[in-house]
Amino acid sequence: MVAKRKLSASPVVPVVLSVIVLLAVWEGAILLFRIPPFVLPSLGAIVQHAFTDTGRLMAALLATLGEALGGYALGSVLGLLVAVVLLLAPPLERVVMPLAVAVNAVPTVAYAPLFLIWFGLGAASKIALVALAVGFTMLVNALHGLKQADLAAVNLMRSFGAGPLKIVWRLRLPVAMPSVVTALRIGVPRSMIVAIVGEMLGAYAGLGRMIYESTQQVDLLSVWSAVLVASVASMVFYGVLVWIDQKLVWWR
Questions:
Q1: Per the database record, which ranges form the ABC transmembrane type-1 domain (predicted)?
Q2: How many CB atoms within 10 Å of residue 61?
Q3: pTM as predicted
């Protein structure tokens, strides 16, 4: 009984099961519907091609990860800082939030041509795009979390002479941590998606650039290999965040 509980509690088990199900459905669909390789190649062929093209894939992955992580960190920090500023200045919130919603009502990728003109084809344009996508998510979630602090506890700290910043640091930020970590989790796939799509529209390197060039050359195995590498990298990135969540929000 104890062994079963430990097995079900392990986060590795659902991942392994999901991979097995994916393999079964993928390969089963190819066999059942006789799907030709140029429409949907087998996972074995994709993995084999990825191993033979490791050098190019790793170079592209490093470029994309650099852009995604750079924009992810920048957007998360800026979103959290802006949330704190808006919390401390409610009149400013009524002005800034409608503008932020209006900007993010348009898909982030739609701004890619402008960002490519402003920041060039290098990493800066993709970092800015990712920061825009991640920053709004962090802003909304962090602001909501900061407002969840108990009003009686806030008034108690004020009665002991605590200033607004100290209340934020000592009380509001710990209360907001579940919301902040949720925003960080949501930002993981968004950062990779935006970085890759931005590279497809214009870049010197990266998985998106590789996917675009391979599509032009009708090299579908390279396209699928790049997609596979991006998916694995996102899963590892997300797993690290889950571990951080368990360490930072241990009381939950």
A1: 61-245
A2: 19
A3: 0.86
